[in-house]
Amino acid sequence: MSNRSRTGIPNSLQEHWMPFTSNKGFKKDPRLITEAKGVYIKDHKGRTQIDASSGLFCNPLGHGRKEIINAITKQLETLDFVTPFQQGFGGSFELATKISKHTPGDLNQIFYTICGSTAVETALKISIAYHKARGQGHRFRFVGRERAYHGMNIGGTSVGGMINNVKTFANILMPGVVHMRHTHLPEHKFVKGQPETGAELASDLERIAKNFGAENIAACIVEPISGSTGTLVPPKGYLNKLREICDKHEILLIFDEVITGWGRTGSAFAAQEYGVTPDIMTMAKATTNGIVPMGVVAVKEKIYDTIVNSAPEGVIEMFHGYTYSGIPVAVAAALAVQDIFEKEDIFNRAKNLSSYFLDGLFSLKDIDCVENIRGYGLMGGIDIKMSEKPGKAGFSVYKECYEAGVNFKATGDCLIIAPPFICEKSHIDEIVEKLRKGIGNYSKTSKKNSK
Ligand SMILES: Cc1ncc(COP(=O)(O)O)c(C=O)c1O
User: Sign of torsion, CA 386 387 391 394?
Assistant: First the structure.
């Protein structure tokens, strides 16, 4: 039996069909990560990089945390798996109690899923189940928003608003979905924090309610800050307005906090940061510091009670769940993460680092290929001026920055920067310095090529 860690170069790159990757490009010029510790990662050529997007928003506590590794190991040695249907284990209940202490209002009922995408599907299905249980089964429509990302399952893709994710699959998407406009206005140039203009865009929901019949709408789903299309921060008052319209028409408001959850904005959730309480909230990624897949849906007590009390005693109240809903290894990781959140006062740590981070990010404004910068908390987006086609410049900058020693995710022509919360100011300086080098190198090369 082999116990080597599989981090070397494999014999063949052919068989693995990689997700959201240019497979042909990658296999010609692979970037294989071999080690990760703290805020640094190393690749197969021995290059060390600083992790500037917390491994896709997953690892705010940094890599290789011994407390989490020990908790997982201990859990696996005692109880490695429990069938989650009609039986359970103590840990998942303990975790639900802990999570419910952080969620806003009375979003105290916790449903476990496998990832962000399954958390979104669950949130959509709970909305439908709730309306059915209260005699409003005619509510079948969902309202999403342009430039939203809600994962890759059919429901999430349908309410999402990223064109490349939708094009190929348009004919199998969920019927009855309507999209509001996104909130990124042309005047939102180099705005640090929440833009002053754009709250009125929330009235798109009112128009949709008028045009399609408010009584047919089950829920409206938004990311409080759109993460995957480059940190689109909500205009001041926008989320409050959505809340008011939802209340008026008995439409459920779902916040997808897969990225913004667990401290990214400086509060536990964006809901608290912006003072708007949704009816249902999703989370994933940082819940386990990204180490074991896990999604969570937090639901208002009233919704849970309505669904559960509508079924006769002894009958399954909602026919929904996953084999891996709240499995011991994920729960153990999440409980260890909760301990670290508390011990290291981690949300305040993120809050205190925010202005230093945003100042650093905005200092890159002078580089001539930088078109726009946005940011909130420890979350930022840098738009690179488009070259011949969308995404080309973004990917070229990503590669230059990779060479310069800073690792992050680029979507289209936007660089997504989201440092781990355990960063010291010196790490932020290093991220900014290396971004300047990588973006600067791209800028020089592209100018030379255009001559
Ligand atoms: C807001 C949001 N929702 C859902 C998802 C999907 O999560 P997962 O990739 O874990 O399925 C993501 C992933 O980035 C996300 O950002």
Answer: negative
**In a 3-state reduction of DSSP, which class is residue 409?**
strand
The tally of domains found in the chain comes to: 2
154 φ/ψ angles, rounded to the nearest 5 degrees: -65, -45
Q: Do 201 and 301 sit in the same domain of this protein?
A: yes
Instruction: Tell me the residue range of the domain where 446 lies.
Output: 3-64+345-450
pLDDT digits (tens, 9 = 90+) for 187-226: 999 999 999 999 999 999 999 999 999 999 999 999 999 9
Q: Where does residue 170 rank: exposed (0-12), middle (13-18), buried (19+ CB within 10 A)?
A: exposed
Confidence at residue 1, expressed as pLDDT on a 0 to 100 scale? 41
The CATH number that applies at residue 130 is 3.40.640.10
Non-local CB neighbours of 183 within 8 Å, separated by 6+ positions: 145, 195, 198, 201, 226, 232, 234, 235, 238
Residue that is last in its domain, among 343, 360, 390: 343
Region for 290 from its dihedrals, namely left if φ exceeds 0, alpha if ψ lies in -120 to 50, beta otherwise? left
373 alpha carbon – ligand 1 mean position (Å):
22
Q: Calculate how far, in angstroms, residue 286's C-alpha sits from the geometric centre of ligand 1.
A: 11
CA of residue 115 to ligand 1 center, whole Å: 7
Residues 51 and 78 in one domain: no
Question: Best mutation site among 53, 117, 265 for ligand 1, i.e. most ligand atoms within 8 A of its Cβ?
Answer: 117
pLDDT in tens, 34-67: 999 999 999 999 999 999 999 999 999 999 999 9
Give the end of a domain, one of 343, 360, 378.
343
Same domain, 161 and 190: yes
CB 370 within 8 A of CB 384: yes
Pocket of ligand 1 (CB under 6 A): 115-117, 120, 149-151, 223, 227-228, 256, 258-259, 284
CATH code of 21's domain: 3.90.1150.10
Ligand 1 centroid–CA 439 distance in Å is 27
Closest atom of ligand 1 to CA, residue 228: 16
249 and 353 fall within a common domain: no
pTM beyond 0.90, yes or no? yes
Whether the pLDDT of residue 451 is over 90: the answer is no
